[in-house]
Amino acid sequence: MKDSLDNKDMKYENMYDFEIDKVIEAVKSNNAKSVLLQFPDGLKHRGKEVVDAIEENTDCECIIWLGNCFGGCDIPITLNHQIDLVIQFGHNKFIKNPAGWDGGK
Amino acid sequence: MKLIFIDVHYKGEVKLTKECLDYLKKFKNVGLFTTTQFNYKINQVVEQLEKNGNIVVSSQPERTNAKFQVLGCDMYHGNLKLPKKVDVFLYVGDGRFHPNALLFHEEDSKTFHQVVLFNPTNNKTDVLTEKDVKKVIDRRTANMKKFLTADYIGVVVTTKPGQEHLHYVEKLKKAFPEKKFYPFIADQINISEFSNFKWIQSWINTACPRIGMEDAAEIDESLLNVVEALRLAKR
User: Fold this and answer.
1) What is the pTM of this model?
2) Which of A91, B74, B166, B205 is the most exposed place for a label (fewest CB within 10 A)?
3) Smallest Cα–Cα separation from A59: which of A8, A105, A22, A24?
4) For residue B2, what is the nearest residue in chain A, using CA coordinates?
């Protein structure tokens, strides 16, 4: 499995670690068929690389959140029954996540 | 639906420059904060500061998952839960959203401390002071006055996790029995919607507190965070 995002030159564009191996493993271990990817504005331009890397290595379908994603509080709960896995980049667990969410454990 | 977070760590060096360290020499206690991109390398910065003669003060703020991490919503006194007083803040990261939270937090202090910015992506040092957020704070003071004289108040609630604050409507009704409160709910607050409800004289925000700060300074309508509104009742 090749982490195309992490093996490029260390220029500014590639200075951030998207942990693609970990992402792919999470998709597989959760047996996720539908995955929603959320990026803060500053990382949205990297979306294509992330989607392509996931879809090349799994049989899931990725959907990209078209909207703001200001932090760990910004989760699309209205999609609760339509998406198997949400992967939010650039943020960390938000402590006030409601009960029942696994909050990135 | 399961949820995972990817920190997106910054892969470059996180090391204070001589310029930054020299500036910090005149302060003793340095309140150190960063974001999740840089936090895993913050120990190097701690070592540098200690060698520089500074005492590093930090905490795990209320809603965060790690020590040294600050969120944009950690803007009220008490959110940071600092173990001791600081003489200056040092924010390691890029952008202004998080360091502005530290500045707003300082508004409750008797002395307004500077926030030194160190950006590891370009190794630049900058200094923020009270004047960098004066426009926002002045506008908020004006919005407080408008709220106090308004009769019809719109209360904005969002459905985002951690922001489902419909209960504030009852608190506001109790605190200001002479006013009429109208709850509004949305997945995401679109402040341009306010102009459709001209009969609302003043708006209260119960969602992310930064909406009642920088966003409120950019619109014609009066918009105030619920925390500030309830503080007015206690005066």
Assistant:
1) 0.84
2) B166
3) A24
4) A85
Question: Looking at this protein, which amino acid is placed at residue A94?
Answer: F
Mark which residues 17-76 of A lie under 8 Å from B by CB: 17-19, 22-23, 26, 30, 32, 42-43, 67-68, 70-75
Cβ–Cβ under 8 Å, residues B186 and B159: yes
CA nearest B100: which of B69, B56, B130? B130
- Residue A53's closest CA among A101, A94, A89, A104? A89
**B14: closest chain A residue by CA:** A15
Name residue A93's amino acid: K
Sign of the Cα pseudo-torsion (A99, A105, B4, B8, in order): positive
What is the residue whose two structure tokens read 């966003």?
B215
Residue B19 and residue B125 in contact, taking contact as beta carbons nearer than 8 Å: yes
Buried b (16+ CB within 10 A) or exposed e, A24-62: bebbeeeebeebbbbbbeebbebbebbbebbeebbebeb
Q: Does A90 contact B37 at a Cβ distance shorter than 8 Å?
A: yes
Report, in angstroms and rounded to the nearest whole number, the Rg of chain B calculated over CA atoms: 20
ipTM of the complex in this document: 0.73
Burial environment of residue A89 by CB neighbours within 10 A (0 to 12, 13 to 18, 19 or more) = buried
In angstroms, what CA-CA distances link B2 with A26, A31, A66, B6?
10, 11, 19, 14
